């Protein structure tokens, strides 16, 4: 096994990473949650690495978390993407707290005490997550009631809180998006056991039905205008922390696939050659293409995480930059894994092959928001200095 070049800051050790890798295939095969990985990673502090030290965490910033996420994903991508759903809540809330806004310090305190926060954003028919919602939010005395269906609620077996968002359309001229954290088991909430997916199976991302679920005001994180006009530090932080995490997970899958392919062609023989396939010019071409694809991804992903952590002011262009980085990482990683499967050949499609699992896992990268259509729209509009909320007018 070729280890990735990242060394991180010591949250993860080689023995733990190897155990996570050894369990990954079994979790995938059995469609089973990564419970053992979670318990070990919790004990190392990885789960709360973005929680500030004063709340019991390690106090890592986005750039530092990105490296640790990438290291874990090289060995166990489903574990990494699943835990990213908790880590991004704690990371963005830490940034909010550092800005002088203490309204979400309760979440950091709960996380420091061991609570797990999951993401409940995905909805059927809504390809603009976070900014809009097909779930209904109704203001009532003391809080809000939520009605709708959430999909892919990662960390379903262990979460204590589900972070969700919904639309309050009581004023049709000024719809609002309500961001909230629902305690597990709240009356009116039902977990729907439906997860049996193509890839990333160990995340166990079940659905959740919300039938008039009441969340008190103390757990309402934000009420903001719908669309990009409602993007404040909290909302932008969701995109930054979640998408940088996704980008690093899928980049690491590509990195692992390249290493597997390199080792394979060094020993793979052919009746037409007197030396291993590594000496075939077209094999070298393919390996070079895979390497250059990854070489182009990593600097972009690292730069956006570093700029955010260092407070570089990109303004609204942060949305463009992080959407672009996630898109390029997920598309490029899949191309690398696909090429690796070609190089490895027929054995690669066998369930006993690591590449078979990585192929399925990597394909899910483009399912994570934002999809390609939204990405191109946002990046294009911001490059042209057009509001992302601007609707096309023909004629």
Brief summary of the model shown:
With 395 residues, this protein is of the alpha+beta class.
For the termini, the CA-CA separation is 59 Å
Looking across the biggest beta sheet, what order are the strands in? 1-4-5-8
Task: Give the percentage of residues in beta strands.
Answer: 5-15%
Task: Give me the CATH fold name of the largest domain.
Answer: Butyryl-CoA Dehydrogenase, subunit A, domain 3
Largest pleated sheet: 4 strands, mixed
Return the string of H and E elements. HHHHHEEEEEEEEHHHHH
CATH class annotation of the largest domain: Mainly Alpha
Count of discrete alpha- or pi-helical segments spanning 4 or more residues: 10
Mean pLDDT: 94
Number of domains: 3
Any idea what the shape is?
globular
Q: Which CATH architecture of the largest domain would you pick?
A: Up-down Bundle
Unreliable stretches (pLDDT < 50, length at least 5) are none
Helical proportion, percent range: 40-55%
Spell out the CATH superfamily of the largest domain: Butyryl-CoA Dehydrogenase, subunit A, domain 3
Determine the structural class based on helices, strands and strand pairing: alpha+beta
Query: Would you count the extended β strands for me?
Result: 8
* Radius of gyration from the alpha-carbon trace, in angstroms: 21 Å
Topology overview:
Layout: H1 14-30, H2 35-44, H3 62-75, H4 77-98, H5 105-112, E1 117-120, E2 136-140, E3 143-153, E4 161-168, E5 176-183, E6 189-192, E7 206-216, E8 220-225, H6 233-267, H7 281-310, H8 317-344, H9 354-363, H10 372-383
Parallel strand pairs: 1-4
Antiparallel strand pairs: 2-3, 3-7, 4-5, 5-8, 6-7
Helix pairs in contact: 1-2, 1-3, 3-4, 3-6, 3-7, 4-5, 4-6, 6-7, 6-8, 6-9, 7-8, 8-9, 8-10
């Amino acid at each position: 096994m070729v280890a990735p070049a990242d060394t991180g800051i010591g949250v993860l050790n080689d023995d733990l990473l190897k155990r996570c890798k050894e369990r990954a295939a079994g979790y995938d095969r059995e469609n089973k949650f990564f419970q053992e990985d979670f318990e070990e990673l919790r004990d190392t502090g990885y789960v709360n690495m973005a929680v500030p030290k004063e709340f019991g965490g390690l106090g890592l910033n986005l750039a530092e978390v990105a490296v640790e996420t990438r290291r874990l994903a090289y060995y166990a991508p489903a574990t990494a993407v699943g835990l990213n759903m908790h880590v991004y809540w704690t990371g963005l809330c830490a940034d909010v707290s550092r800005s002088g806004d203490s309204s979400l310090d309760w979440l950091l305190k709960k996380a420091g005490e061991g609570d797990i926060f999951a993401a409940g954003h995905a909805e059927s028919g809504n390809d603009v997550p976070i900014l809009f919602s097909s779930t209904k939010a109704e203001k009532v005395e003391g809080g809000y009631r939520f009605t709708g269906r959430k999909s892919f609620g990662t960390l379903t077996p262990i979460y204590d809180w589900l972070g969700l968002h919904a639309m309050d359309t009581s004023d049709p001229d000024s719809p609002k998006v309500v961001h909230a954290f629902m305690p597990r088991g709240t009356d009116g909430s039902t977990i729907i056991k439906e997860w049996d997916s193509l890839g990333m199976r160990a995340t166990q991302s079940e659905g959740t039905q919300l039938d008039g679920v009441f969340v008190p005001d103390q757990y309402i994180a934000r009420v903001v205008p719908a669309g990009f006009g409602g993007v404040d530090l909290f909302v932008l932080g969701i995109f930054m922390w979640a998408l940088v995490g996704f980008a690093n997970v899928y980049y690491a899958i590509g990195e692992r696939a390249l290493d597997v392919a390199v080792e394979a062609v060094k020993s793979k023989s052919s009746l037409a050659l007197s030396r291993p396939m590594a000496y075939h010019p077209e094999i070298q071409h393919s390996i070079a293409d895979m390497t250059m694809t990854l070489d182009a991804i990593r600097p972009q992903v690292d730069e956006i995480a570093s700029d955010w952590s260092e407070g570089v002011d990109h303004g609204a262009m942060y949305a463009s930059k992080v959407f672009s980085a996630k898109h390029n990482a997920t598309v490029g990683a899949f191309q690398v894994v696909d090429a690796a499967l070609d190089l490895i050949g027929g054995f690669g499609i066998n369930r006993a092959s690591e590449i078979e699992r990585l192929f399925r896992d990597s394909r899910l990268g483009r399912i994570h928001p934002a999809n390609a259509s939204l990405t191109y729209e946002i990046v294009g509009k911001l490059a042209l200095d057009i509001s992302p909320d601007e609707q096309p007018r023909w004629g």
